[in-house]
Sequence to fold (104 residues):
Amino acid sequence: MVDNQGALYDYNKVVELDSHNADAYFYRAIIKVVLKDYKGALSDYTKTIELETNNEYAYEKRAELYRKMADIEQNEEKKAEWIAKAESDENYSGNSFFYPWNDI
Fold:
C-alpha cells in the first residue's frame, strides 16, 4: 500500500529544509497529481522548471497536467488556455536546448 500522504509530508519537509531542491518539487508534484491537487502540482512543476530550466521531464509532466486540467474544465475559454499551455510545453520539450552537444 502506498502512503501518498506520508510521501507528501516528507517532500514538504525536504522543500522546507532546501527550497532549491528541484527533485523534491518534481516528486511532490507527482504526489499532488495522485491526490488530485492539480493547482498545487502545477505550482510544483513550475518551480521545478524555474530551478532546472532544462528538466525535460518537468515540461512533459506539466504539459500532461495542463491537458488533464483542460479535460475537466467546463469553461471553454479556460480549456483553450490549458491546451495552449500544454502545446507550449510540448514544443519546448522538443527543442534542441536539451542536447548540449548541439552547441559544440
